[in-house]
Specification:
Length: 393
């Protein structure tokens, strides 16, 4: 459960899972931190949606007349995602198409990969008077992620530099930027970069064998997690009479998990990802068949074992219970650390943009210490999961 905390020393407001005794993530003080209610932090409430609508109205009022009226999404061609021998070239070609779609000049914006962004996907900033968009180098071989990051960062540039629209609160500004990216028509590009990997095939095998194996991975940009972003994109499509069947032709199969699309529309021959859709369907069908064969074989041998052997009465020993407790405890701690790291990353991003390097340098050490502890806890958790699985056999 999320708590909303406010520091009465520096007026900073943030979300946390750890409760009201947490140190302020901005000034570091604990005295004066209190828990408050703020509908902007409450997911899926009437107040929250009313506030988001007010942000959308703010965007419409600030932009030139009729800029958003009857605006269609940017529907990418398959050639947009074609990789180039020179990885920098795809940045320029993608960016040029996005700038042209938004009807704004690129001017002398510097767009390049950067290997020092750690876990930050991308960054829009101003360095020595030059506008700069940095893309994390670890994504340079994935054109779908590159497109999503560019769309998000160019939205920042469009709002701040080209239209002088910015909200002071970092938290509120990230939400505003996500909503603006949808209203400006860049939602498809961003959703296509939001990968989902569930490894369901291996999870099913592990469960049939009596083990616990859950391994999912998502990748998102900005504030919203992939599913909430997809929900708001669909809402935008409905409100603007944009045919979902048409949208489905431009959504990559890796992103289907995040957006509700008609089943048949996913496999239309007009889809730019038609081949990828068929491959995904065939692989899933093949996986289901293998699981059914394996489960049937396992069931048969268990029946045979029950007919010819002594019934077993498995019990869970104290060691297994202790391991389960350690897993649950670490899972909560990792969740808290992940939340704090996200807050730190957004603060560091804000300090870097504003040139507040004293605050940046003060926070970066705390970020690195917590990141190392987070990685250590992840390793401990995986080790305990293996021990737990072994104790069940």
């Amino acid at each position: 459960m999320w708590n909303v905390l406010k520091c009465n020393n520096c007026a900073h407001i943030w979300k946390s899972r750890s409760g009201y005794t947490e140190n302020c993530s901005k000034c570091g003080m604990r005295d004066g931190v209190e828990q408050i209610y703020d509908p902007k932090f409450s997911e899926n409430t009437k107040e929250r949606y009313e506030w988001e609508n007010s942000l959308t109205n703010l965007l419409k009022n600030k932009l030139p007349n009729n800029f958003l009226e009857n605006r269609q999404p940017f529907f990418p061609s398959i050639s947009l995602y074609k990789m180039h021998a020179n990885k920098e070239d795809i940045l320029i070609s993608m960016a040029d198409e996005i700038f042209e779609f938004l009807n704004i000049p690129r001017n002398d914006v510097i767009i390049t990969f950067n290997s020092k962004l750690n876990n930050i996907p991308g960054l829009y900033t101003i360095i020595e008077g030059k506008e700069v968009i940095l893309i994390n180098s670890k994504y340079k071989n994935n054109p779908y992620i590159i497109g999503a990051i560019l769309a998000h960062e160019i939205t920042h540039l469009f709002l701040i530099s080209r239209n002088n629209i910015c909200i002071e609160s970092e938290y509120e500004n990230e939400i505003f930027t996500d909503l603006a990216s949808i209203q400006l028509g860049l939602g498809v590009l961003i959703i296509n970069g939001m990968e989902y990997k569930s490894n369901w095939f291996f999870t099913a095998f592990a469960l049939l064998g009596g083990s616990l194996y859950i391994n999912t991975k998502t990748l998102s940009f900005g504030y919203f997690q992939p599913k909430p972003y997809g929900e708001r994109f669909l809402k935008y499509c409905v409100e603007n009479n944009i045919a979902i069947n048409n949208v489905a032709s431009y959504i990559h199969p890796k992103a289907w998990h995040f957006i509700k699309l008609p089943i048949m529309a996913r496999f239309k021959k007009t889809s730019i990802f038609y081949k990828q859709s068929l491959v995904k369907l065939l692989l899933n069908l093949f996986g289901v068949i293998i699981i059914i064969i394996f489960a049937s074989t396992l069931f048969y041998f268990k029946i045979q074992s029950g007919l010819h052997g002594e019934p077993q009465n498995p019990t869970i020993n104290q060691e297994t219970l202790d391991l389960k407790y350690q897993m649950d405890t670490l899972e909560i701690e990792v969740g808290q650390q992940d939340s704090t790291l996200n807050t730190y990353r957004k603060l560091l991003d804000g300090y870097d943009r504003s040139g507040d390097y004293d605050s940046y340098n003060s926070l970066v050490d705390k970020y690195n210490v917590l990141l190392n502890k987070y990685k250590s806890n992840i390793n401990d958790y995986n080790s305990i999961v293996k021990q737990y699985n072994a104790s069940l056999k």
